[in-house]
TrEMBL record:
Pfam families: FCD, GntR. This is Pyruvate dehydrogenase complex repressor. It comes from the Bacteria. Transcriptional repressor for the pyruvate dehydrogenase complex genes aceEF and lpd. SUPFAM superfamilies: GntR ligand-binding domain-like (SSF48008), Winged helix' DNA-binding domain (SSF46785). Residues 4-72 form the HTH gntR-type domain. GO terms for molecular function: DNA binding; DNA-binding transcription factor activity. It comes from Neisseria arctica. Transmembrane segments: none annotated. Keywords: DNA-binding, Repressor, Transcription, Transcription regulation.
């Protein structure tokens, strides 16, 4: 097998960084000059490498604005599901079932494979989540929640799981905000949610795969239960309001 050319070596490193999430979906890549300095190669070699990545669909070139990581890997896995979820509420139960299975496996692998750096990332997002709960800012809570779960997926050190998780969480980001708002309308669930995230973290830190999987699945069971309760209460409120309006119409219709 012939040795890789300089350009091919640059392509291999950049492609691996994209797959590993070092350059996230949609992120702008460093300019050619910085990449050339980082790799110790000429700018023409970097330029040729970027052109190869564009041809592969891994990178998008924007005239006058540099190169960006393609969103193809992230959006391609679940393309079209965002609109379906918005039109068909019952699909949320199917999504929770899928997440329950997926995140249980991921959390178990994370407990087996996590590094100290992974733990530091998880601790950061756990602290950020607690701070967001205290602030009452739904957007911050959603962002911290999504990033915590994605950090768990990346701690599993399986590229396919990381990309599937990233695609799913990206698609559900807006729904996560709405779900949090709905759940908080049922009861003060913040302490339970925080405790569940801590349980996932502690099991991963202690390298207990079965406990980590159970904690992740238990968390999603709780979320599903809260959302079901909220939907029922919403239905009851709508029905009560409709009956009250009917009574008022009939009362007025009788001339009273």
């Amino acid at each position: 097998m012939r040795p890789l050319s300089v350009t091919e070596q640059v392509v291999a490193v950049l492609e691996q960084n994209i797959l590993d999430g070092v350059y996230s979906s949609g992120a702008k890549l460093p300019p050619e000059r910085k990449l050339a300095e980082e790799f110790g190669v000429s700018r023409p070699s970097v330029r040729a490498a970027l052109q190869m990545l564009v041809a592969r669909g891994m990178v998008v070139s924007r005239h006058g604005d540099g190169h960006y990581v393609s969103v193809r890997l992230e959006e391609g896995l679940l393309n079209g599901w965002q609109e379906l979820l918005e039109r068909h509420e019952y699909l949320q139960n199917d999504v929770l079932d899928f997440r329950r299975s997926l995140e249980g496996v991921i959390a178990g692998l994370a407990a087996e494979r996590r590094t100290d750096t992974d733990l530091n990332r998880l601790q950061f997002w756990l602290d950020e989540l607690e701070s967001a709960y205290q602030s009452g800012n739904i957007e911050r809570q959603s962002e911290a929640d999504v990033n915590f779960h994605q950090a768990v997926a990346e701690a599993a050190h399986n590229i396919l799981f990381a990309h599937i998780s990233g695609s799913l969480l990206h698609m559900l980001h807006r729904h996560t905000q709405q779900n949090l708002a709905n759940m908080f309308g049922v009861a003060d669930v913040k302490p339970q949610l925080m405790s569940q995230h801590r349980a996932i973290f502690e099991a991963i830190r202690a390298q207990l795969p079965h406990a980590a999987a159970a904690a992740a699945q238990g968390h999603l069971d709780f979320v599903g239960s809260c959302l079901t309760q909220e939907r029922e209460q919403s239905h009851w409120r709508q029905r009560a309001e409709a009956l009250a309006a009917k009574d008022l119409r009939e009362y007025k219709g009788n001339g009273k």
